[in-house]
Amino acid sequence: DAGVTQSPTHLIKTRGQHVTLRCSPISGHKSVSWYQQVLGQGPQFIFQYYEKEERGRGNFPDRFSARQFPNYSSELNVNALLLGDSALYLCASSLRTSSYDSNQPQHFGDGTRLSIL
Amino acid sequence: AQKVTQAQTEISVVEKEDVTLDCVYETRDTTYYLFWYKQPPSGELVFLIRRNSFDEQNEISGRYSWNFQKSTSSFNFTITASQVVDSAVYFCALRNGGSQGNLIFGKGTKLSVKP
Question: What would the pLDDT profile of A50-108 be if each residue is shown by its tens digit?
């Protein structure tokens, strides 16, 4: 079975531009989360979606937005890119059976490495 | 506040040595979940184990073992007879019960196993 897939693998943008990152969850997983991992740090939570609704949001500015589609895939959008947005963006999916089912492990994709020049 | 601390930034061992990675967590919740993930150079986070706050039983899986102690808020990870393929960054993570799903990660411990 395919794991979590993310595209693109690498991306180079300049300051002020906009970027869209994509994620396909493991088949049967309805919950998708996004994390930002800056070099040398642990991942930081950005968003979580379950059944196409936003269920959680981390401490990130409004330049970051996301959505989940009927097939449970997801997009992360970042506007007005800053140098500090350079990071590995990780998508994770989990087999979640209710709105508050927090004990399911999240399975991560390989990430999108975003570089801002 | 919720927090995960991995005090060891980098560890280097020689193959076949045993190594323990430390993890200390902080949370006010009585129900929470602890996780360990492995991140090889390719970048993907690989799930290793989940432990519930109400289950302090230690677990062994092959060369891996985990020691969960609520009294010291620790969830340590031991690799026995380390191998070169164990070289990676290891993350400990916390999720509170009822949380909408976000994991709180430590800063990670980079393990280098030399032949």
Answer: 888 998 899 999 999 999 999 999 999 999 999 999 999 999 998 865 555 567 788 99
Q: Is A102's CB within 8 Å of B44's CB?
A: no
Q: Say yes or no for a CB contact (<8 Å) between B106 and A45.
A: no
| Gyration radius from chain B CA atoms | 14
Pick from B7, B6, B50: which is nearest to B32 by CA?
A: B50
Query: For residues A36 and A43, what is the distance between their CA atoms, to the nearest angstrom?
Result: 5
E strand intervals along B15-73: 19-21, 24-26, 32-39, 46-52, 59-61, 64-69
Q: Could you tell me whether strands A44-50 and A31-37 are parallel, antiparallel, or unpaired per DSSP bridges?
A: antiparallel
Which is nearest to B78 in space by CA: B33, B17, B32?
Answer: B17
B111: nearest Cα among B39, B51, B59, B52: B39
Q: Which residues on chain A are in Cβ contact (under 8 Å) with B96? A: 102
Residue of A31, A43, A88 lying closest to B101 (CB–CB): A31
Min CA distance, B93 vs chain A (Å)?
Answer: 9
